[in-house]
Amino acid sequence: MRGTIGADRSADSYLPQHGNGGYRVTHYDLELDYKPGPGRLAGRARITAQARADLAGFSLDLHGMRVDRVLVNGKSARYSHRGNKLRVTPARPVTVGAAFTVEVRYVGTPKPVRSPHWGEIGWEQLEDGALVASQPIGAPSWFPCNDQPGDKATYRIAVTTPSPYTVVANGSLVSRRVGGSSTTWVFEQLAPMATYLATVQIGLYAEVEVSAGQRAAVPPRLVGVFGHDFGRQPQIMAAFVSMFGAYPFAEYHVVVADEILDVPVEAQGLSIFGANHVDGHRGCEHLVAHELAHQWFGNSLTIADWRHIWLNEGFATYAEWLWSEASGGLSAAVLAARSHAEMARQRQDIRIGDPGVRRMFDDRVYQRGALTLHALRVRLGDDAFFAVLREWTEKHRHSTVTTDKFIAVAQEHSLKPLDRFFRSWLQDTALPRGFE
Ligand SMILES: [Zn+2]
């Protein structure tokens, strides 16, 4: 059907202006050349996709940058780039079900995406390097993409930059080639990944091995303190593997940027902390646990729609409490009681199962999300509760999830119906009185 532009929108209930429902991406192959001084990025994205409708045209999300050329299936295509949409009209329409490739060459100085509710997100030039923190809408700041969490794809990310810099991106480093004064780093992420979890980190870092499969890139002056503060990360990993099931990716990388960051940021297979999160006293160990937990809850199991954000943040917050308990600190029950008392003092005007786009990252989504899980644990008992968590991560590994899917898994482990329980915790605004 001519005239279809793949809706130019996604089905996401909070951010439908991001993404395009007309196709799904199976693979992103990104070749990037970055000059840290001027902050200049030259990119070539080769995207493999499959049409979900007959497409006379389609759009990609791309913020700023100058597009020099677009090819569809190897042939020049017409395009226009306005706002954050790159609209492409191939020489021949793509038929429903067909696989197709799109190649985009682009250049510019990437700028973070300004968002009304979450500040500036995406590619950020640092004093000496760059970092990318894209949740939820920053991915188009550095590559053309179908920017919706439910459209997961594999990635190859190649970055060429001056040789003194270290590059970390998602997945395994498959080659590092020095040529003249620059080095090309190639990473492959073979597990499907949402666009907001794609990242590139560039800086003057020392590379540290925390333990087998756990590496870090850290400013050289912080290596000693980092060794202390992240010293128990292997134990956190072991505790989470026993509680949540197998770690979902080939490796885990931590980057400590030489910057002050409000909060650490998760990406697939890695987490990004600020220099302020390394204090020599393990003052941020709960955040080390929180970010690691996102590898299961958020990254392997990715929400199909931003509305389900509590499935990321409630779980990662509860993981902080589980680690406290497992490491001989305060029990999850004590931390839950404290959090409940605090929530009871706050306004009760949020439905954490559907908090609204403005309040996706409201602290109450994190706290009450964790409280929901604690209440479920009290109701089911430890054996059934942890069986639910392991079945949840196993059944939906590397896939996309919704609140209803979680309720279905929990219900299988409960003789009594859980509808009212979940409704009162997730859909009602009033805070349930306690955990029974
Ligand atoms: Zn989080």
What profile does the largest beta sheet have?
8 strands, mixed
Rg estimate, integer Å:
22 Å
CATH topology of the domain at 301-427: Neutral Protease, domain 2
**Spatial separation of the terminal alpha carbons:** 56 Å
Number of helices: 9
Averaged pLDDT = 96
Q: State the strand order across the main sheet.
A: 5-4-8-2-1-12-15-14
Beta-strand percent range: 25-35%
Bound molecules: zinc ion
The coarse overall form would be globular
GO molecular function: alanyl aminopeptidase activity; metallopeptidase activity; zinc ion binding
EC number: 3.4.11.2
Enzyme class: hydrolase
Family: Belongs to the peptidase M1 family.
What are the key terms here?
436 residues; alpha+beta; Zincin-like; Neutral Protease, domain 2; 9 helices; globular; binds zinc ion; Aminopeptidase_N-like_N; Peptidase_M4/M1_CTD_sf; aminopeptidase; metalloprotease; hydrolase
